[in-house]
Write a structure and sequence with these properties.
Residues 1-22 are annotated as: Disordered. The chain is 76% helix and 0% strand. The protein contains 1 helix and no strands. It has one helix spanning 12-50. The radius of gyration is 16 Å and the shape is flat. It starts with 11 loop residues before the first helix and ends with a helix.
Length: 51
């Protein structure tokens, strides 16, 4: 955990860990997550148009 030692960027190590976890998950269920994410974005875009 060398990147978590200094106070310079307090959230950079958290962001990096999240990105690595996301990449691991994407390798495992990439297409399923992409389809679900696209559905969510489409619903959000539709709500934005309605409002």
């Amino acid at each position: 955990m060398a990147e978590a030692t200094g106070p310079r960027h307090p959230d950079s190590s958290v962001r990096g860990a999240r990105r690595r976890r996301d990449q691991r998950l994407l390798k495992r269920f990439g297409s399923e997550i992409l389809e679900e994410t696209l559905k969510v974005y489409q619903y959000q875009a539709r709500d934005d148009v309605d409002s």
